[in-house]
Predict the structure of Cation diffusion facilitator 1.
Amino acid sequence: MADLPNNLSMLPHPIHAHPERPDSAASNQKTPSATATQRATSTSFEPSPLASNENDATARHPTNSSSDEENLPPDYPRDHDPYQLSSKLKTESEINLIRANTSRKRDGYGPITLNKEASKAKKLQDFYENQNENIQKWLKPVDEHIRLAKVFAGENHLKYQIAVRGSFAANIILAVLQTYAAISAGSSLSLFTTMADAIFDPMSNVTLIVCHRAVKRVDPRRFPSGKARIETAGNIVFCFLMTAVSFIIIVLSFIELKNGNPGSETKKLHLPSVIAVAIAGVTKLALFCYCWALRNVYSQIRILWEDHRNDLFINGFGLLTSVGGSKLKWWIDPMGAIILSCLISFLWLHTAYSEFQLLIGVTADTQMQQWITYISMTHSPDIVAIDTVRAYHSGPRIIVEVDIVMDADKTVRVAHDVAEELQMKLESLPDVERAYVHIDFETSHKPEHFLKKEL
């Protein structure tokens, strides 16, 4: 639990007792918004004892401009914002003022926009923008997140299908095209490297499609926790297959370098092969641009986007070394094949390492842990404290463990209902596969689970 205060940097005591909520008659009243004199317009704050709220910050340089009043953040009901996080939101004008105030100071190392103070101001601006995004995300009800996720999925379903199926169809055509280019070119190992990568692309698409369907078709009696990890396992297998092919090409390239190219300083140039690889590169560029917008929404499309990005460099570099071996020196071609194969091996092994981390159970990112903690803290006034929050991957999805503290005098029915509602709420979050809620009445005990190091 020592890491929890660091996860919620904006709350001085994240595991303190739940703030008192208004009664049902006053639950619909909105919290008065902070006035212009209470809102900060500079990067410096001074604490002052305010009668209304001790946690409010006092601005050094208040402003009376009408634009600030128009940019004030929306008010939130008290029961949706018990910790008054909305008072910490920064308006766009306040964030811009940070850069303006700090950038006036020169440090003697360059123009105003490039000096150290300006760089610090940019980092501070990014911090407040991320903080605004997190606060607005936390204050939005979970039901609204679910509704927006469904709306977004419906609106982008056609784009998703075009990205997946379009990439699959294009990869089949490009595999045939680059196979022709490699075979017709004859002895160009660089083009054989691009051919091997192109042949494995549709196989990768098939793996993604099959795994995606397998995840949706689950026998709960045989796989009670689902089959989401099959996608991660499939990616790992494919990574090692691609790496094995790259190693074979490296061996062939070393053999050619050892034997040499007697009788000629260059290799024969086959123009149709060059045109075929160039067409493949242009097609990959188009697919890369199309998948860009959805790369952070669907895990399948992100893998496709990374594959198109890698193929752009592979096709371009392979074409360059193949032409170099035909126009300059013959050894440029096998040397280019070695460099490409080493790059492909590195990229796929790096992907395999990332997938292994998900399969082993690496912790979720900090923002996700913060969001889960805030949801648990504000779920019910019967929760008096949060003991432990864990969030870790199980394949592409996340397992959540939350230990909540309730009054020892609460009935079993009340405790069960609060924990069950919190569990259902957490499991409805995007990417959360399972949520486990443990109830306790104090926080001085040892953790319920210990780290088992022996088999």
